[in-house]
Amino acid sequence: MVNNAVQPKARLLLAHGAGAGANSDFMQLLAEQLALRGIEVWRFNFAYMQRMLDSGKRSLPEKLPALQQQYVAQLAKVNNDLPLFIGGKSMGGRVASMLTAQAKVQGVFAFGYPFHAPKKDSWRTEHFARLGCPLFIAQGERDVFGSACELLDKHWDYVQIYWLTDGDHDLKPRVKSGTTHMQLIIQAAQFCSRKIDEVLLANK
Fold first, then answer.
1. How far apart are CA 137 and CA 128, in angstroms?
2. Fewest C-beta in 10 Å: which of 10, 73, 76, 156?
3. Residues 6+ apart with CB under 8 A from 153
């Protein structure tokens, strides 16, 4: 699944979250907004999600090593004619963040990073100390997988977090915030575009 961009400046391989596939409304809306900003987006389904879509029966994600292998297999299919970035929503972003040592990857984007399971204190950030390229995270302030309050005193050298006002794990704000879901998706896409520009300029 490819969202083409007019005069693309970069390519982003984008993986889905645990509960919805590459063609979910969120993934489509985000990919469309990224493409409007000169980022060609390649989306794919992990094997368990494709099985679930094909069979109509619920299927749980494979373990992280298997998901990483599947992501690397998708990376091998990507053309080399544009600067390459990788990322994903939630689980997809977590898997991508573990692949920063891949030679052609210039940066990673996570849209709603699952820092920990809701109401759990087991953090999924050990590998942040070993990142081989920058990790950029667009995170809702109210995300139960890692909120602005919880991350107030956290810092990692190669990680930048962009906070989306009143957003939850799907980047959805409450009605009373006065902001729409679409506005936050657009802000996340703008953040991604800005950071890609910065990386490309730094790598010239």
1. 12
2. 76
3. none
